[in-house]
Amino acid sequence: MTADRTSEPVRFTFEGRSVEALPGQTLGGALHADGVRILTRSFKYRRPRGYTCGYGACGNCPLTVDGLPGVNACERTVEGGEVVRRERGWPSAGVDVFRLADAAAPLLTAGFQFRLFTKTPWLAHRAEKVMAWVAGAGRRPSAEAAAATRATSHETRTVDVTVVGGGLSGLAAALGAAAEGASVLLVHRGVLGGRSLGRSGSAAGRHRTYGSDREAALALAADVAAHPSIEVLDGTAVATFDGVDLIVVSRRRRIQVSAPAMVVATGSYDVPLSFAGNDKPGVMLASAVRKLMHVERVRPGRRAVVVTENATGYEIADELLAAGVTVSAVVDPDPSARPADLVAALDAAKVPVLAGRPVRVRGLRGARSVVVAGGSGTRRLRADLVVVSRPERPAEELRWQRHYVEAGDTHAPKGAPTAHATDRTVVVGSAAGLPAQTLDDARDAGRRAARAAGAAPRRVDA
Ligand code: FES
After folding, report:
1. What is the CB-side half-sphere exposure of residue 221 using CA atoms within 13 A?
2. Structural domains in the chain, sorted by start
3. CB atoms inside a 10 Å sphere around CB 218
4. Residue nearest to atom 1 of ligand 1 (CA)
5. Cβ–Cβ contacts within 10 Å for residue 354, how many?
6. Which of 38, 42, 60, 278 to mutate to test the pocket of ligand 1 (most atoms within 8 A of CB)?
7. What pTM did the predictor assign?
8. pLDDT in tens, 112-121
């Protein structure tokens, strides 16, 4: 679901004031549109943190929603009426006195409390409580919030194939498995289509039929939703391993799923770049910027610098211009390695492409400028948005868990069967490594999983 400009807005309360959101928008998107850049502060040095990855991967956006702490603002869709507050910052997140801890960093090195209280463990325990309070960590949900999140049903389910991940490849694999006659359970954490909804082009020529990844994701999601053999558990679903079974927590249901075959379609992560100030609000990874523009319908900043190590950064610069953002420059260590047409398009739009790297982002509460070093020396560029675009990393945690269980790893749960054939775990899309497979590959992988599960062919897929 993407933010809808045509319907009536909804409202929620943020730290005592009413904030408007478009239907379908997340808390993170609505707060960004409202001008809120600092969503939390880091535990120890209380550095400001804001919308960074957009997909629940960086931990920079936890808020307390209706008494429940640790809710990712970038993932929680606004329903209306929520009471939301930040978790750290005193007297406010903008002006936090504990920020002084950053100045005392040399005294507060990792594990300093253990060295300081080696001989007085009782003092160490007390100090830890104080530190937890200062860090704003370990708070319990209110009794009402705890009751509202407790699982109300414990179910078991047996299907032929589980597909974990509802991005483009997961959707295609689910349809492939179902076409082979399998009963399919598709488990997805966010909105069906995932990060593909933010892509107005086609990553690595993944398909020919659709105009863009976004179009493809919407079409496949509709096919999946309408398919009688595919059940979707989406929203806040989480999956972990317990032997060969999958435990899925979806909204308030806890479901233990047994399936002879699994398709791992967990996608990939954006990879940050190391430079001073890369954690300031306003420094965002490529997918977050695309999500703000194309899914949340929010302008991500006013003036941007795009730091890139791939062609995607050039595409994003183009999309930013179309969204009304001034692009100060594209900074690339090797512009000559990028497609000439992308470089020429920016040239025509009078966006300079600088050969170099970012050195430091400046700004007290968020990005105000970025210092860039390159062949022509060092220069400072004004920007309240610094986009980092780099080659991604496969999200392969689930794949490896599955591998260890199958291999009879000693850390696997007791009784984990080792005879669970490896051809029953199929990895598709960018989780399989990059560049990502095509949609046809993912569909074929779904069919393979169905055959490995012993599903009876139901019909021949056209
Ligand atoms: S986890 Fe929400 S922005 Fe990264």
Report:
1. 23
2. 1-151 (3.10.20.440), 153-269+393-455 (3.50.50.60), 283-389 (3.50.50.60)
3. 17
4. 56
5. 21
6. 60
7. 0.87
8. 777 777 788 8
